[in-house]
Design goal:
The complex is a heterodimer of chains A (303) and B (357).
Chain A lengths: L27 H33 L3 H6 L13 H40 L6 H13 L6 H10 L7 H24 L3 H9 L4 H12 L1 H16 L3 H6 L8 H8 L8 H27 L10
Helix pairs in contact in A: 1-12, 3-6, 3-9, 3-11, 3-12, 4-6, 6-9, 7-8, 9-12
Chain B lengths: L3 E8 L9 E8 L4 E5 L6 H9 L6 E6 L2 E2 L10 E4 L11 H11 L4 H14 L15 H14 L4 E5 L7 H18 L2 E6 L2 H7 L2 E6 L2 E6 L1 H6 L4 H6 L6 E8 L2 E4 L2 E3 L3 H7 L3 E6 L4 E4 L3 E10 L3 E10 L2 E10 L9 E6 L5 E4 L8
Parallel strand pairs in B: 3-8, 3-9, 6-7, 7-8
Antiparallel strand pairs in B: 1-2, 1-4, 4-5, 9-10, 11-12, 11-14, 12-13, 14-20, 15-19, 16-17, 16-19, 17-18
Helix pairs in contact in B: 2-3, 2-4, 3-4
Classes of the chains: A mainly alpha (303), B alpha+beta (357).
Chain lengths: 303, 357
C-alpha cells in the first residue's frame, strides 16, 4: 500500500515552505578533499573485487590465439564469439547435473533431519537431550578431512564408489551437526507455549512438526539452506576423493580437470565454464536470498 | 461442562527440594469461575498446567467430571487453554488459528467454518478472520486466543494470566468481557492471575496460594472479611491491610494509648504475649486518642484520601495506611491518632500467622 504524504518530507511544517538552502558551495571542495582517502579506499576495494570477475568474463570471449598472441590486458576482438561457451557447455552441463543431483538431495535430507532433530532437542522434553545436543556439537569439531580415507574404504566395500551416493551421504553427514545446532537455537527462540497450544489442540508430535514447526521455521530453514548450499556446491575435496570417473564429477572437480582436457590448456572454454558456474550460483543465491531477507516470522506472541 | 477436583495433587520438579505444588486439595463446581491467585512462584501456573496435562502430577490425582485425568494426554482431557502470550500460530490466519483444533479433530469443513464464525461473532472478530496475528493489536490477539478456546466447546477453560500483556485500560474492559462471557457460556473456568483486583472482581471463588500451599478458598467477600491467615489478609485488598504486632494487656490489646478490646478465647489461642492485629485502611478512624501515626505521604483520590505514615512500636517503625475523607486530609509530617473499629479487626498469631478470632 502506498500513501501520499500531505506535506513534502523536508518542508517546514509551520510555513509549509521548504527551508532556504544553506550556503554550502564554498565548503564543498573542502569536504570532497577530506573524503578523498575514503573514496580511494572504496575504489581500490571495488576494483580488487570486481576486476577478477571482469577479467573472467572478458577471457570467456577470447580465442586461444588471442590468449597466446595478444597482450594480457587486451580486450577480446569479438564480443559475439560464443564458441567458448558452446565448447564449455558440452562437459559443464554434465558436471552441473552431477552437482545438482548430489547437492540438492543432500540439502533436502539434511534440512528435514536437521529440523526434526532441532525440534526433538529443544521442544520435546526427554532425559539426556542436552547430552545429545552436545554430541552434535562435537560433530562440528570433527575435521572431516581426516575421515575421508576411512569413508572411502567404507563406500568402496559397500559398492557405492561408481555412483553419486558417497557425495550425497557425506554432504548430508558433514552438514548435519551445524544444521542441528542452528535449528535448536532457532527453536529456542520460539515460545514453548505455541507448541503447548498445539498439543492442547490435539496435535501429535509429528503434526506439530509438520503443521507448526516447519512453517514457523521457514526463514531459518532457507537461511541454513543458503549457507550449506555454498559449502556443498563449492566443495572440492570430498568430490575429488569420491568421484572416480569423469561422468560423475561435480562442477568444482570438473573445472579442475577442464584445463587438461585437450592436452593443452584451453583458456577460453575454461573461463566460459567458470562463468557458467558463477551464473548458476548467482541465480540460486538470488532466489534463496529473497526468502532469507523476508525476516523471521513475527506476531506469534505479543509484539 | 464438568467439575474439577484436585485431590492432594503434588508437583515436584526434578532437582527441587520442595514441591512447586504441595498436596493441593481443591474442588471446583460445574460452571464455576475459580481464580487461582498468589505472588509469583507460588505454584498457581503449575497447578493450572497440571490440570492441562502440561506438567506431570507426582502425587495425588486430578479429576475432571468423574474421570481421573491424572495420566490422560492433554488432548483427551477436553479442555482449552488461553496462554499469557496468547501462543497464536503466526503463519495461520485468525480463522485457521481458531479452527486448528477442529481440523485436527476431523470436524468437517463446513461445520468448522460455522463454529469459527460463531465464535468470531461472539468476540467481535468477524472482520479479522483472514488476517494473520501480526496484523492485529494486542487486544485483538487476546480475543483470538479466547476464540481458539471457545470454538472447541470444551468442558473446562484454563486461563493463564490472559490479561497481563494488555494496557491498563484494556485490561479493565477485557476483565469484564471475560467474566460476562464465562457466565453466558457457563463453562467451568480456572483462571490464574497475580493481580488480586482481577481475582476479586472476576471469580465466583478465589483460591490463594503461597509457596505451593493452598492458603484459603472462598468467595471474594469471605477472603476480604475473614482472611484465614496473615498472608491472605495482606495479599487481598489494596492498599494492603495494616498488620501490627501488639502486646496483650489486661482486657485486650494495647493500641497506642488505648486498649483495643478483644475476645478472651482468641487471646488464649495466641499462647503468646503478643498478637498480630490486622486492620484495613478503611477501618481505621481518626480520633483524639489511639495509635499515633506520623504522616509521610497523602494520596488524594478525590472522594477518598490515603494517608501513608508510620508508627513506632517497641522502638521499631511500622508503616500504617489510613483511609480518610478526601476533603479533609491531614498535613504531611503531622501526627494523627487512629482507632480501629473493634468489630472489624483481625487477630493473627505472631508465630504462624493463623487467624485467632
Amino acid at each position: 500500500m502506498t500513501t501520499t504524504p500531505l506535506i513534502a518530507p523536508h518542508a517546514d511544517l509551520r510555513t509549509g515552505e521548504r527551508p532556504a538552502p544553506r550556503p554550502r558551495r564554498r565548503r564543498r571542495p573542502m569536504r570532497t578533499l577530506r573524503k578523498l582517502p575514503l573514496y580511494a579506499v572504496v575504489a581500490l576495494l571495488l576494483v580488487s573485487v570486481l576486476y577478477p570477475l571482469v577479467w573472467l568474463v572478458l577471457g570467456a570471449f577470447k580465442t586461444q590465439d588471442e590468449f597466446l598472441n595478444s597482450p594480457t590486458w587486451a580486450l577480446p576482438e569479438d564480443f559475439t564469439n560464443l564458441a567458448n561457451f558452446g565448447d564449455a557447455w558440452g562437459s559443464v552441463s554434465q558436471y552441473l547435473l552431477n552437482s545438482t543431483l548430489a547437492v540438492f538431495p543432500a540439502l533436502l535430507v539434511m534440512l528435514v533431519i536437521g529440523t526434526a532433530a532441532g525440534f526433538a532437542l529443544e521442544i520435546m522434553v526427554w532425559k539426556g537431550r542436552n547430552t545429545v545436543l552436545l554430541v552434535f556439537l562435537v560433530g562440528i569439531m570433527v575435521p572431516w578431512q581426516m575421515i575421508l580415507l576411512p569413508l572411502f574404504t567404507v563406500y568402496f566395500q559397500a559398492g557405492l564408489t561408481q555412483t553419486l551416493w558417497p557425495l550425497i551421504i557425506t554432504y548430508t553427514a558433514t552438514g548435519l551437526p551445524l544444521t542441528v545446532f542452528l535449528m535448536a537455537t532457532y527453536f529456542r527462540a520460539i515460545p514453548r507455549e505455541v507448541f503447548e497450544a498445539a498439543t492442547l489442540d490435539g496435535a501429535s508430535m509429528l503434526r506439530s512438526l509438520v503443521s507448526i514447526a516447519f512453517p514457523m521455521m521457514k526463514n531459518a530453514i532457507f537461511t541454513i539452506a543458503l549457507v550449506q548450499f555454498f559449502f556443498m556446491w563449492n566443495d572440492l575435496l570430498i568430490a575429488l576423493t569420491f568421484t572416480t570417473r569423469d561422468e560423475l564429477r561435480t562442477v568444482q572437480a570438473g573445472l579442475l580437470n577442464f584445463t587438461g582436457e585437450f592436452g593443452v590448456v584451453q583458456y577460453g572454454p575454461t573461463f566460459a565454464a567458470i562463468c557458467i558456474n558463477v551464473l548458476v550460483i548467482l541465480a540460486i543465491y538470488l532466489f534463496l536470498n529473497q526468502r532469507v531477507m523476508r525476516g523471521m516470522a513475527a506476531g506469534a506472541v505479543k509484539g | 461442562m464438568a467439575t474439577v477436583v484436585y485431590d492432594a495433587a503434588t508437583r515436584l520438579y526434578p532437582g527441587a527440594d520442595r514441591p512447586a505444588v504441595d498436596a493441593l486439595d481443591l474442588s471446583i463446581e460445574d460452571g464455576e469461575f475459580l481464580v487461582l491467585v498468589g505472588p509469583s512462584g507460588c505454584g498457581k501456573s503449575t497447578s493450572l498446567r497440571m490440570l492441562a496435562g502440561l506438567e506431570e502430577v507426582d502425587g495425588g490425582a486430578i479429576r475432571i467430571g468423574d474421570v481421573d485425568v491424572t495420566d490422560v494426554a492433554p488432548k483427551d482431557r477436553d479442555i482449552a487453554m488461553v496462554f499469557q502470550n496468547y501462543a497464536l500460530y503466526p503463519h495461520m490466519t485468525v480463522g485457521e488459528n481458531m479452527g486448528f483444533a477442529l481440523k485436527i479433530a476431523g470436524v468437517g469443513k463446513e461445520e468448522r467454518a460455522t463454529r469459527v464464525r460463531e465464535a468470531a461473532r461472539i468476540l467481535d472478530l468477524e472482520q479479522y478472520l483472514d488476517r494473520k496475528p501480526k496484523a492485529l493489536s494486542g487486544g485483538q490477539r487476546q480475543r483470538v486466543a479466547m476464540g481458539r478456546a471457545i470454538v472447541r466447546q470444551p468442558q473446562v477453560f484454563l486461563m493463564d494470566e490472559p490479561l497481563s500483556n494488555l494496557d491498563a485500560k484494556l485490561r479493565v474492559q477485557t476483565r469484564t468481557e471475560i467474566a460476562s462471557l464465562q457466565r453466558r457460556l457457563g463453562v467451568t473456568t480456572v483462571y490464574v492471575t497475580h493481580d488480586q483486583v482481577e481475582a476479586m472482581t472476576m471469580g465466583d471463588r478465589v483460591a490463594v496460594l503461597k509457596d505451593g500451599v493452598l492458603q484459603q478458598v472462598g468467595s471474594p467477600r469471605e477472603l476480604y472479611d475473614r482472611p484465614a491467615n496473615a498472608f491472605v489478609a495482606g495479599f487481598i485488598g489494596s492498599p494492603a491491610m495494616n498488620q501490627l504486632e501488639l502486646p496483650v494487656v489486661d482486657g485486650g490489646v494495647q493500641f497506642g494509648d488505648s486498649t483495643l478490646p478483644v475476645d478472651r478465647a482468641a487471646l488464649a489461642l495466641a499462647g503468646d504475649q503478643r498478637v498480630l492485629v490486622g486492620v484495613r485502611p478503611e477501618d481505621l478512624q481518626l480520633a483524639e486518642h489511639g495509635l499515633p501515626v506520623t504522616v509521610d505521604v497523602v494520596e488524594e483520590l478525590g472522594a477518598d484520601g490515603f494517608v501513608y505514615g508510620h508508627t513506632v512500636i517497641a522502638g521499631a517503625e511500622h508503616p500504617v495506611v489510613v483511609r480518610v475523607d478526601g476533603r479533609r486530609v491531614p498535613a504531611r509530617s503531622s501526627t494523627i491518632h487512629v482507632r480501629p473499629e473493634p468489630a472489624r479487626t483481625h487477630l493473627f498469631a505472631t508465630t504462624d500467622g493463623r487467624r485467632l478470632d
